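Proteins fold reproducibly. Next comes a concrete instance:

***
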Amino acid sequence: MGQMVIYIENDIKKRIERAAKSKNTSSSRWVTDVCLKQLDDEWPKELLDLYGSVKDDSFQRPEPVDPSYDAPRELL
């Protein structure tokens, strides 16, 4: 496992330590997890939690559109 030295302000260091403690993990593990989330190429898993979460009658699934209404493609 590699090591890295970074320089951050003391108040940021304290905030990281508090956040890590609240997650019951080390500061190193907490920073690694945050970095992995930022470097991940996938959509956040939490995004799927939002799907279907809006309870509003104004949100309705539209009726399917007849494909015959599509314009013909232009040949290139």
Summary: The radius of gyration is 23 Å. The mean pLDDT is 86. The chain is about 40% helix and 0% strand.
